[in-house]
Amino acid sequence: xxxxxxxxxxxxxxxxxxxxxxxxxxxxxxxxxxxxxxxxxxxxxxxxxxxxxxxxxxxxxxxxxxxxxxxxxxxxxxxxxxxxxxxxxxxxxxxxxxxxxxxxxxxxxxxxxxxxxxxxxxxxxxxxxxxxxxxxxxxxxxxxxxxxxxxxxxxxxxxxxxxxxxxxxxxxxxxxxxxxxxxxxxxxxxxxxxxxxxxxxxxxxxxxxxxxxxxxxxxxxxxxxxxxxxxxxxxxxxxxxxxxxxxxxxxxxxxxxxxxxxxxxxxxxxxxxxxxxxxxxxxxxxxxxxxxxxxxxxxxxx
Length: 302
Fold this sequence. Notes:
This protein has 14 helices and no strands.
């Protein structure tokens, strides 16, 4: 079969470059993918198989004991519900605040736009510190509530700047002027034109903020003392510490049983990693269609 006349003939240097690029991409994929496969396989293997190092790629002596130990603790389910609440509510607030701040700054006719941008960027360089922030939360009477998890970080400045650049690049001022001729105000233009045309950057914001809230445990350690509001990460941390402490206590009485409990603690650790990362791994494939587009356009200087 003859080659198509339109086919591009690659030189020897091009073929060498593409071969090295493909090999590097495959190697990098394996480096990233193997730890994930290993953790999942170890979480479904027996404690003896994990501790003896027999788990390499696939589960050995399949078992769900690690997941049973995690989920039989009712506080884990409470932590799961709290984390879903924090992630959903916090992401909604953050996306809303980011959009309503980025849209005015993206318009060329906004008075004193440089001054307002300076005020936003100033907060990226300077903050009051942990103790003053704690005192502020105490005076606002939001300690040990859901609001202390979502209000202090209600807007990310770096995400706001990316969103502003995206809106400036994709929403021309001529479109606003054309709609204003027909009597459209700014609020209606924002809801009917800006939001539908900003699906890509909204998906990026949802992923950024959602992952940040899902993995956040430091905020809860500082501001939450009531166990009923603990997020999943703190619950899993407590469970892991309790399992390790139980193994160390049993070591003084029964060495064999202590070794077994240590193996179980390792198995629980792998199960907790899978449980805590599974929602994020499910979310990314859903939003990845918009993710690359939003990041690329939003990172370009308008």
